[in-house]
Specification:
Length: 285
């Protein structure tokens, strides 16, 4: 599944290449991949938004095309401007439609948007704009939100007996953080992933959130992190993992103290950490 920076890089490409164009035709090749209560033809894209890992393409008639790429989804444009974003299979550069193509949108400038999805977990839904917003209403703040600090502090304190890594992966506590960014943020904050929330001060929790925001911004600038699964809207693989401090660096020296990084399991997920920089803290009493 893509993490927030991967989806943000695709959103930026859609904003540049699709916004302002109208849909003149829709060809649904897999019924489960597309749903619309009323025709999409004739609607024009007004804006490309993102909430956590969902793409929200606002239309000029108060509706929204909501898109979730899930594990293997792609959005590929062929026409005056060619680009592809998503899972880096041959469909990004091959002839389309192919056997992974689920939906084709024809635009008014002659371009075609192909929604490809090998495993059919992704989807496109045309819904009222308010419904699109309701679909993500249960999500917590994103680390980069201006008001994320107070909201995160309130939500995470409701999980006092939960280990901090599990809390970070809970999308109702904080949205958009996956395994990579949880490990990176906790290393940056010098917090062991298995530390329970109750053992962390407000200052320590704020440091974790700030580190999450920082690594996400870096990842967005570098084109995302999931080098084997996702590329951005210009077709470039994410470069963040080339600069990761702890993720996938087991057996290598910690860039801060030189101690060997280890891989273990926390909250049911493979977890990378420095055993010297990140020690488990215990709650008082």
């Amino acid at each position: 599944m893509p993490e927030l920076p991967e989806v943000e890089t695709v959103r930026r490409g859609l904003e540049h290449l699709v916004v302002g164009r109208a849909v003149v035709g829709v060809d649904v090749l897999n019924a489960g991949s597309f749903a619309a209560a009323s025709p999409l033809e004739g609607a024009r894209f007004e804006a490309a938004r993102r909430r956590a890992k969902m793409l929200l393409l606002d239309l000029d008639d108060d509706r929204c095309l909501a898109v979730h790429l899930k594990m293997t989804g792609q959005l590929v444009v062929r026409g005056p401007d060619d680009w592809g974003g998503g899972h880096p299979s041959d469909s990004l550069i091959g002839d389309l439609p192919d056997r992974s193509t689920r939906v084709v949108l024809d635009l008014d400038d002659g371009a075609r948007v192909f929604f490809n999805d090998q495993r059919k977990f992704g989807w496109m839904r045309v819904v009222p704009r308010g419904t699109a917003d309701d679909m993500t209403s249960g999500l917590g703040p994103e680390p980069m939100d201006d008001d994320a600090g107070p909201r995160f502090a309130d939500l995470v304190r409701r999980h006092q007996h939960t280990v901090i890594k599990a809390a970070l992966l809970d999308q109702s506590v904080v949205a958009g953080i996956g395994n990579i960014y949880a490990d990176e943020a906790l290393w940056g904050a010098r917090v062991h992933p298995a530390t329970r929330v109750e053992a962390l001060s407000d200052r320590a929790l704020r440091r974790v959130l700030d580190e999450a925001a920082a690594v996400m911004m870096t990842s967005i600038e570098l084109g995302g992190s999931t080098d084997r699964n996702y590329v951005d809207a210009e077709g470039r693989r994410g470069a963040y993992l080339d600069f990761a401090r702890v993720f996938r660096r087991e057996g290598k020296p910690c860039p801060r103290c030189g101690t060997t990084i280890v891989k273990t399991r926390v909250a049911g997920r493979g977890t990378h950490l420095c055993p010297k920089c990140q020690r488990v803290r215990r709650a008082a009493g």
